[in-house]
Amino acid sequence: GVVIASSTDTIGVSTVPDWAPEPFGLNAGEPGGLVERISYDRSGEAVEFSRNWFNHKVCRYTNRLGKRQTT
Fold first, then answer.
1. pLDDT tens for residues 21-43?
2. pLDDT in tens, 41-57
3. CA-CA distance, 43 to 20, in Å (whole number)?
4. DSSP-derived 3-state class of residue 25
5. Which residues pair with 30 in a beta bridge?
6. Using the 8-state DSSP alphabet, how is residue 27 labeled?
7. Which residue among 15, 23, 32, 53 has its CA within the 20 to 30 Å range from the CA of 43?
8. Count of CB atoms situated within 10 Å of the CB of 18
9. How far apart, in whole angstroms, are the C-alpha atoms of residue 37 and residue 7?
10. CA dist., res. 67 & res. 9, Å (int)
11. Spatial separation of the C-alpha atoms in residues 13 and 33, rounded to whole Å
12. What is the number of other CB atoms lying within 10 angstroms of the CB of residue 30?
C-alpha cells in the first residue's frame, strides 16, 4: 500500500460550496474555513489531495501527522 511520508496543509477562507448540507451551519456562498491537503509518499510523489471546509464558528483545525514524541 501507499505510505504517506509527509503532507502540506494550506488553510484559508473560501466560499462554502452550493452542495453544503444544512447541518453544516453556513450557507452556500458564505465565507468558511478551507483546508487543502497534498500528501506525498516516501519518494516525494503527490499521492493524495483533499479539500475540506469547516465552520469557523464551531470548530478549529488541528493537524497532527506522524508519531508523537515521548520523553
1. 999 999 999 999 999 999 999 99
2. 999 999 999 999 999 89
3. 35
4. coil
5. none
6. -
7. 53
8. 8
9. 7
10. 17
11. 5
12. 12
Listed as own residue / partner, the contacts of 51-58 with beta carbons closer than 8 Å and 24 or more positions apart are: 53/14, 53/16, 53/17, 53/20, 53/24, 53/26, 55/24, 55/25, 55/26, 56/32, 57/25, 57/26, 58/25
All three cell numbers of 4: 504517506
Cell of 1: 500500500
Tell me the one-letter amino acid at 15. Answer: T
Q: What SS3 class is residue 22?
A: helix
Cell of 55: 465552520
Distance of CA 52 to the CA centre of its chain: 5
The residue count for the chain: 71
